[in-house]
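Example record

One chain of 239 residues, shown exactly as stored in the release files.
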Amino acid sequence: MTVLVSLKAGLRAPTVSLPLLLLRAAMKQEQASILVIDDELIVRRLVQSVLEGEGYRVFSASSGMQGLKTARQFQPDLVLLDIVLPDMDGYEVWRMIKESNDLSATPVIFITAREETRIHSENARMGYVVDYIPKPIISEILLARVRNLLELVQSRKVLLWKNRELERKVADRNRLTAVIEQSGRAVLIVDHEDIVVYVNPAFGRVTGYPDNEVLGQPIESVERPVLTDYGYRELLPLI
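Predicted structure tokens for this chain:
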């Protein structure tokens, strides 16, 4: 039996569409959870009030160790981190977040009373998303930095998803090519206009047709007493 594969059928594995992914990303941002690590109660209350007023879920901690414990427990989408903490340096907390398997992708915004050039140098060295908010905290700046960083993180997630989809499609195509090439059955592929664009090595042996008499010809010109039409989905289990 000769297996006919029509490109009209296409190879479409079930995937989440990009528009749907973007919609989910937007919804995720509105429902994002944020952890505030700062030893000043007034700062924690101010930040929590501002963020909850915009629909974010907020957790808080007053020390580095408590913040790490809370982060592992609730897996926040973003961490607001004071640099000066009573038990450890804010940069040390950041380093531990980045080295944690379950928190390494969590973006961080530092809260600081001064311009922190170290933030920029560390960000460039580690190659991850980080920003800072100056004290005293201004609500508009806080919301803008939080929103912008969450949008950037979601954009990276979408790009990663697209790259993975491309890699999956390439892997599927390579697998299909290898299976067809090695198959003992004759395989013939036609394009969207039913023109023969490919025959596998077994085609000539099985059908007696020389490749040059088939390639580029309409499928109707090929005598096919036993020719079955399959799409890509049906092909793999049969070859």
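Notes: The radius of gyration is 29 Å.
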